[in-house]
Amino acid sequence: MSEVEEKSLNFIEQIVEKDLAEGVHTTVQTRFPPHPNGYLHIGHAKAICVNFTLAQKYGGQTNLRFDDTNPSKESQEYIDAIKRDVNWLGFQWEGEPKYASDYFGKLYEFAQRLIQMGLAYIDQSSLEEIREMRGTVTEAGKNSPYRDRPTEESLKLLEEMKNGVHDEGSMVCRAKIDMAHSNINMRDPLMYRILKVPHNRTGNEWNIYPLYDFTHGISDSLENVTHSLCSLEFDIRRPLYDWFLEKLALFPSRQYEFARLNLSHTVVSKTKLSRLISEDIVDGWDDPRMPTLSGLKRRGYTPEAIRNFCDRIGVAKINNVIDVSLLEFSIKDHLNKIAPRVFAVLDPIKLIITNYPEGQEEDLLIENNPEDENAGSREVKFGREVYIERGDFMEDAPKKYFRLSPGRNVRLKGAYILHCEKGVYHEQGDLKEVHCTYYENSKSGQDESGIKAKGTLHWVACNHAHNAEIRLYDRLFNDESPDGHKEKDFMDFINPESLNRLENCKVEASLMNAEKGEKFQFQRIGYFCADEKLHSKDQLVFNRTVPLRDSWAKQQKKGG
User: pLDDT value at position 50?
Assistant: First the structure.
């Protein structure tokens, strides 16, 4: 039995298997219904994985359906981005994408039918008055003075609303259910409002647009969705969806709710993400600090890592907050297996090997990835002068400092063991260069020197180094729950160190051939990728995906 088969079924899979076994359904049809009013974020990734993998497991299908019922906030840009992200994550929807706007005609007919059945009416109360009449969780609502309006009058007004006769806000269409219902969502909910905004797909055909609660369940039904999967906040709306389907005698699509993905140290509200953009905290929806799938992709995350992350957190009925370190672990785990190791020096200082012949160079064979036996090796130029990290030299080092310090030995990765002689300083006192000697018979793989070196450093040969801009991305917020403070704005917790641009870095020659989006491990530093938008052969730009070690936890313990 495979590992997948041995895993216990989650509660949704148990429901599906029971439905199939009892003949409630003979197939599985799910859907992913995004609003095209922003880019998909990491929370959507869980919903995508749940819907698509469930259908795949049971030989079913998944629709991609855009809930495009509010044209004032929607755009083709968002539709295109959502399609890209779903495909990038590794999934393909059934047939052509579907849209709630495909059903505008049917939805309008259903509204007419409900009015004719005495189950809907046109209300000319203001939205403020409607809110006041709705009541509270402890007090019943009050009937609208228009609730018993004659059927023919409501039908006439609905048509006039559709034809643009009336102004926005002057009237709405409401379902007639029960203003004393214990579930406030059942207290005569709105079905249509006047909105004189051109639609991306239907143009100026409509002057009214259906509300989400009216559209959602009916769209599922029209597509014969057997298992409509939503996050937990929609459980209180399920009775309303069921009411519409029952009264209209439509296919009984059934909704099931699971815990949404709440991730620490971030926000996933599209309104809040939009604010980060509008206030220039980030550069756009695909900024590598954003929790959007486009942002994560640009930062260097892989679809495999995100799918594995979603699989690790599982499907539950109770909301909880997942620590972002688990997402970071998932990408480290995947990149460790696939990313070639390369040399890059972020804060370069020149190291001169004084006893290495001037003008001499040699090609060193360096393993690309010890985790991948098929990754092979590459040749890296070595010479008398190399760049190392400024922080890898200390004049007066403590005993357990295993890097360069006068009188100590260290190995250059894939090269030789060096003996540090001295640091050379500018007149003002800052370090200019480091002088060392090397042990000629200490070459990696051929070491016969008997010399011991506890530390190993990365390096780049000066004559073959290329300049690169390296962007060190970190968490956008320095609080575990930035939007969880009632008396503070989530923007108060922006991490001022979320982006650090280093413009004079040195990288090995092989990185001149790096393609946009290609991923690497910069030895001893972290995982990086060539920026999808800015990187070119003329301008090398690499984004840090995640450091090798979790420095964040140490900073938090220090209060930094």
Answer: 97
